[in-house]
Amino acid sequence: MRPKKAQQLFIKFFILALAALLSYSIAYGSFRLKDDNLIHLKFYDVGQGDSIFIKTVHGSYILVDGGPDSRVLNFIVKDIKPGPCYLDLVVLTHPHSDHLYGLNEVLKYCRVGVVLTTEIKAETKVFGKWEELLREATSSGRVKEVSLARSNNDIQLDGILFDVLWPLNESVSEVENENLGSIVFLFKYGDFEALFTGDAEMEVYDEISPDALSDYEIEVLKVPHHGSSDSLNKEFFEKLGPEVSIISVGRNNKYRHPSLSVISFFKANGSTVLRTDEDGTIEVVTDGKGYEVSVER
Known about the structure:
It comes from candidate division WWE3 bacterium RIFCSPLOWO2_01_FULL_41_18. It holds the Pfam family Lactamase_B. InterPro entries: ComA-like_MBL, Competence_DNA_uptake, Metallo-B-lactamas, RibonucZ/Hydroxyglut_hydro. This is Metallo-beta-lactamase domain-containing protein. The longest helix is centred in the middle third of the chain and has 16 residues, at about 125-140. Strands 6-5-4-3-2-1-14-15 form an eight-stranded mixed beta sheet. A seven-stranded mixed beta sheet has the order 7-8-9-10-11-12-13. It contains eight helices and 15 strands. The protein is globular, with a radius of gyration of 18 Å. A hairpin with a 2-residue loop joins strand 7 (about 155) and strand 8 (about 160-165). Helix 3 (about 95-110) packs parallel to helix 4 (about 125-140). By secondary structure, it is α/β, with parallel strands linked by helices. It has a single domain (about 35-295), classed as Ribonuclease Z/Hydroxyacylglutathione hydrolase-like (Metallo-beta-lactamase, Chain A, 4-Layer Sandwich).
């Protein structure tokens, strides 16, 4: 959705004093998501990895990836209601440990409605543990359902559409590079749209039909693969034209993410670029019409 000039949506960055207060509240555990009939999307600062938490207007909880360690649990317990942890939907975009490790801890601590994942397997201890925990949780009823992501397998929850764009209907279990099987999905609530990309690399966007996004104007993009240049499909993202581009990345990481060429590209195309390594946890709040963005620091 692009608003008319007189009704332009705005991105609201907190003044320094309020940003400091927010940082203080998170640090000392007093900050919680409000029951305010709004959608909250929090791009957690989990270091070199991805983890996004979503609260719906009806109080359902969604977690997309779990980051590279157990710190995601510290975030979650502050953002859910007191009591036993229950997540309505957990998405594992692909089985690399910087997206998966924290989900292993989540499965130990939380009950889950639906786990959305792919058939891709990884020859790692972290993924082996994931398979073990998922089997145990499914057999015990702690996880109600496991669903494979396909472009014809969309999910609707509390008025939100999760439109899976990749993988397509065929299996991606044989891909050599797990990033090429990473789930890509559109998040739509009212007139607000965000695109979640996991670590999907350049070739993936050549396979996604232009018609799949022709009716949408993306407000928020989760920049793929921590801002790596191998995921920058310029033609695709120029057409997409996100207003805000969020990079989940660790400070001083060994991969030198994000690439300066990626940052320059999105800025040159009029997008506001935010980074968890510099801005801390980033929160987007929307009522399905307008939206606001705040940063931790």
